[in-house]
Amino acid sequence: MYAQMVKSTGKGVQALEEMSREERAFQERIDRGEKIEPKEWMPDAYRKNLIRQIGQHAHSEIVGQLPEGNWITRAPTLERKANLLAKVQDEAGHGLYLYCAAETLGVSRDELFEMLHSGKMKYSSIFNYPTLTWADMGAVGWLVDGAAIMNQVPLQRTSYGPYARAMVRICKEESFHQRQGFQIMMVMANGSKDQKRMAQDALNRFWGPALMMFGPSDKDSVHSAQSMAWKIKMNSNDELRQKFVDETVPQAEYLDLKVPDENLKWNEETGHYDFSQPDWDEFYDVLKGNGPCNHERLEARKKAWDEGAWVREAMMAHAEKKAAKKQAAE
Ligand code: 3HC
Q1: Digit-coded pLDDT (tens) for 227-279
Q2: Does ligand 1 lie within 6 Å of residue 145's CB atom?
Q3: Could you tell which of 49, 50, 56 is best to mutate to test the pocket of ligand 1, judged by most ligand atoms within 8 Å of the CB?
Q4: CA distance 116 to 301
């Protein structure tokens, strides 16, 4: 399988003949479907690539709380408020599982946060778009969590044990989020004319950015080939994007909403929808920090970090005091 991948993608994959004996044995373990555990030997590049992907994933969960947190105080009913609050808390939990998984690779949480705050590490582009109306809470749950689970369900089989195990619980919760988002869309789409218009407007604004969540097209993806060879990623960006479109279009039809793409068409021959690529110039611009909310999101995270300093210090002091007491008793 691995040899095939070298041939089919070529890009960025270490060739078998360039590998040391250890690297070759490592690759064979991956190919047999074995899980790699924290204390085991792994190539440096595998470790670095995992820290990059898990770190970016963890940051996405944490930054992803902000656009929805924006609506907690304005949710239309008490039940909606409680649901949204629970969902935003779930995202914080996902961030924590993922930071813990990254820490097993030898990076500290402080280092990860420093990389987020200094812009050295990314988080998902989708969270740099604003949430303007209540319908956006529906669209985010339906499309953003929908895209996230499309990508994350296969990651339950990823080669790194702690990452794969973290994904199991995350996926259960994300599918619940997707359903609660779709339910909001159903209510809006079947409500008054204004509500339906809001639902359509939310779909119009989030469709392109949701497609971008899967990353650049395969020909431009930097990491896919090596990440797939190492089973850090299980599918290519384009494969998952297509799967998302194929599953989401019938859902939009059920809602009687129109996907904002004039080229969207079922293709009998391929058994998939044909669709327009998102605006890749916009994607790269958002990655460079020029999206509508990049500045606001990063500032909010830095503020939370600074204002939480006293909590971290108090927790550390408590832990140190407890350890000293234990030592004295021994
Ligand atoms: N947003 C921001 N950066 C992105 C991106 C996106 N949507 N898509 C790609 N990139 C970045 C990559 O990180 C990489 O930059 P880097 O070298 O500085 O890290 C560059 O663009 C090139 O892209 P590649 O295709 O080579 O990158 P990957 O192979 O890492 O693929 C990915 C990108 C598909 C997002 C992959 O990293 C992945 O599967 N990550 C795990 C899942 C994840 O992070 N999901 C976040 C979704 S949001 C979420 O889960 C929150 C929930 O509450 C909804």
Answers
A1: 999 999 999 999 999 999 999 999 999 999 999 999 999 999 999 999 999 99
A2: yes
A3: 56
A4: 9
